[in-house]
Design a protein that fits this description.
The structure is a single chain. By secondary structure, the protein is mainly α. The protein has a domain of 107 residues. The chain contains seven helices and no strands. The longest helix has 44 residues. The radius of gyration is 18 Å and the shape is globular.
Length: 173
């Protein structure tokens, strides 16, 4: 039964995570923390930090971690199958529809409305990943502003920015 629950939970996550990697966070939290209690909120955030420095898709990393924690290798496989199935089918369906109707005003308007919704979810996740009281610390503000500016104004790969500040954090206690 737990394997089916893992499959269905990550099927829902995969089906509704529209707009890229960080749109998965609120959906994953809803399923694995709030609904099934497979991860505590603290563990969810810790895994969030881990997946940000590991290569690969965020949803696959969460599916693998959660599935393995709950039911071993078979749990990781079931969670990932659910996670991959929905977007794969959705992309096939969307590709057919988009190829036919991409020039219609309603289709263009739908995509124009989806983008800010995903943007809002990414901002919400950003606020959930940090203790708001920490934002008042000079060190944290410096890291946030510096990371943002480096990311926006340079061609430095985001992974290097993450590693750089990780190393700085380890040195600068």
């Amino acid at each position: 039964m737990v394997l089916i629950s893992l499959f269905l939970a990550f099927l829902r996550i995969g089906l509704f995570a529209i707009g890229g990697a960080y749109s998965f966070f609120p959906l994953i939290e809803k399923e694995v923390v709030e609904k099934y209690h497979w991860l505590s909120r603290e563990e969810f955030l810790n895994v969030g930090g881990l997946v940000k420095i590991c290569p690969g898709a965020i949803s696959i990393q969460y599916a693998t971690y959660t599935g393995y924690k709950i039911a071993g290798i078979s749990g990781a496989v079931c969670a990932n199958l659910g996670n991959i199935l929905a977007p794969a089918l959705a992309v096939i369906f969307a590709a057919v529809i988009y190829a036919r109707y991409k020039d219609l005003p309603a289709v263009k308007s739908a995509f124009d409305a989806i983008r800010p919704a995903v943007f809002a979810m990414i901002i919400a996740v950003a606020f959930q990943t940090i203790n708001i009281r920490h934002l008042m610390q000079a060190k944290i503000l410096l890291i946030i502003i510096s990371s943002f500016l480096i990311f926006i104004y340079t061609k430095i790969h985001p992974a290097i920015v993450i590693i750089l500040f990780g190393v700085m954090g380890a040195i600068w206690r």
